[in-house]
Design brief:
six-stranded parallel sheet; single chain; 12 helices; 263 residues; elongated; 6 strands; alpha/beta; 52% helix
Length: 263
């Protein structure tokens, strides 16, 4: 019998990808006003430079293990416990400045001072751009009355908590919140799913995992013996080696699945 639903956070309940795009748009608009130059290619340039720089740091293996992407590095403080997080905390201010400065240079603007200003501007632009899927609260409200809910998210505790703080309506729906950076391993490692089951006091057969990422949420659940729902809003092609138990395009499509599982 199904007793609990585990939810991913980013791009499942909150539209993180859109929030980052919005922050880039606002920051690049401001860059254009401040410099008087054409910044239409700046976002692409900064994304490229940020990804390259991020992969060059000694913390890269850790960020992959925990599940922290380069664009989260552009606004997180990583003021978390542990040597790796403290290394990130020290690296990220320079990383942000370099990513924006080198991005500017790519579009013909050599201005390190502006790069530093844009790095700071982007942080505030992202914090002021929390975007959720329109159905998130309604779905969580309905489910809360019938199931135990657990949030299972990859990332830095500080950054994931910031995301929850700027969308304060989400957290109260959940009995437990498990963040990979606090646990020490991220999805798809089955250990974090076992940890979530332990927190819930439930077996794998009593839980359903809902997430947007085949390579973390779905395969991790599969390896832990948990049934899964792939939220495929962007109509991505299936993966030849990863098969979710169910596939939906919208969170409201969960309810027919839940009725089906009751039978």
């Amino acid at each position: 019998m199904l007793k609990a639903i585990f939810f991913d956070l980013d791009d499942t309940l909150i539209w993180d990808k859109k929030s980052i795009e919005t922050a880039f748009f606002k920051t690049c608009q401001w860059a254009e006003q401040a410099s008087g130059a054409d910044c239409s290619q700046l976002e692409e340039a900064v994304r490229k430079e940020a990804s390259r720089l991020y992969a060059s740091y000694e913390t890269f293996a850790f960020t992959k293990k925990i599940g922290i992407n380069p664009f989260e590095g552009l606004w997180g403080t990583f003021d978390d416990e542990g040597e790796d997080f403290q290394k990130m905390k020290g690296l990220m201010p320079l990383y942000r400045k370099e990513a924006w400065t080198l991005g500017l240079r790519q579009v013909g603007i050599d201005n390190p001072a502006l790069g530093e200003q844009l790095a700071d501007f982007f942080i505030e632009a992202r914090k002021s751009s929390p975007i959720l899927y329109e159905e998130t609260f309604q779905v969580l409200e309905k489910l809360k009355a019938r199931y135990r809910l657990l949030l299972l998210t990859n990332g830095s505790p500080q950054l994931q908590q910031t995301k929850l703080d700027i969308t304060p309506e989400i957290s109260p729906h959940f009995d437990h919140i498990v963040i990979s950076g606090a646990f020490g391993k991220g999805k798809p490692d089955p250990a974090i799913f076992q940890h979530a089951l332990s927190k819930s006091g439930l077996s794998a057969e009593e839980v359903l995992m809902v997430g947007d990422n085949l390579l973390t949420d779905i395969i991790g659940a599969q390896q832990a013996g948990i049934r899964s729902v792939w939220v495929n809003r962007e109509h991505k092609a299936p993966h030849e080696a990863i098969t979710p138990t169910f596939e939906i395009q919208h969170l409201n499509e969960l309810f027919p699945i839940l009725e089906q599982l009751k039978q």
